[in-house]
């Protein structure tokens, strides 16, 4: 089973990329995939990861200094840790520390990021990040296909979702 998790704060402009993309992807459910908008609920995400997913794809705004709307695929370190988990923080280190505190281990994680234009207070995505949603959806679908491919035995079409 694959978890696709949108993370970010919709009240800070382009930081809402993850939740927006997760909501759009959830309109087309897939077998073996759970898609959910976690927003800023890091502890909730840690609890969800206790369910034994084979892989997690997290979607978030990721500032890396490129043009707004640039998409990234990042394989983060799972050993990133925070000494004392904080239920009010939503970052991978804190989510993984909370998960370990709860007795779990993170599955392999892929981060799909989008370069924000602004994370200033305000609702709605900038035009550049809004335009990146379609490409982001296609990218997440390709990553899901890669994870589901081993399950597709004996069929030529497999369980591909990239054609949705």
Describe the structure.
With 164 residues, the chain is of the alpha/beta class. Helices cover 30% and strands 18% of the residues. It has helices spanning 17-25, 42-49, 92-101, 127-148; strands at residues 2-7, 33-39, 55-61, 71-74, 109-114. Strands 2-1-3-5-4 form a five-stranded mixed sheet, with helices on both faces. Helix 1 crosses helix 4. It is globular. Mean pLDDT is 87; it is low at 153-164.
Oligomer: single chain
Helix content: 25-40%
State the distance separating the first and last CA atoms.
19 Å
> Order of strands side by side in the largest beta sheet?
2-1-3-5-4
Largest sheet: 5 strands, mixed
Mean pLDDT: 87
Protein structure class: alpha/beta
Radius of gyration: 16 Å
Uncertain segments are 153-164
Strand residues, percent:
15-25%
Shape: globular
**How many strand segments?**
5
DSSP summary: helix tally: 4
Order of helices and strands: EHEHEEHEH
List keywords for this structure.
164 residues, alpha/beta
Summary?
This protein is an alpha/beta fold. The chain has helices at residues 17-25, 42-49, 92-101, 127-148; strands at residues 2-7, 33-39, 55-61, 71-74, 109-114. Helix 1 links the parallel strand 1 and strand 2.
Helix-strand layout with pairing:
Elements: E1 2-7, H1 17-25, E2 33-39, H2 42-49, E3 55-61, E4 71-74, H3 92-101, E5 109-114, H4 127-148
Parallel strand pairs: 1-2, 1-3, 3-5
Antiparallel strand pairs: 4-5
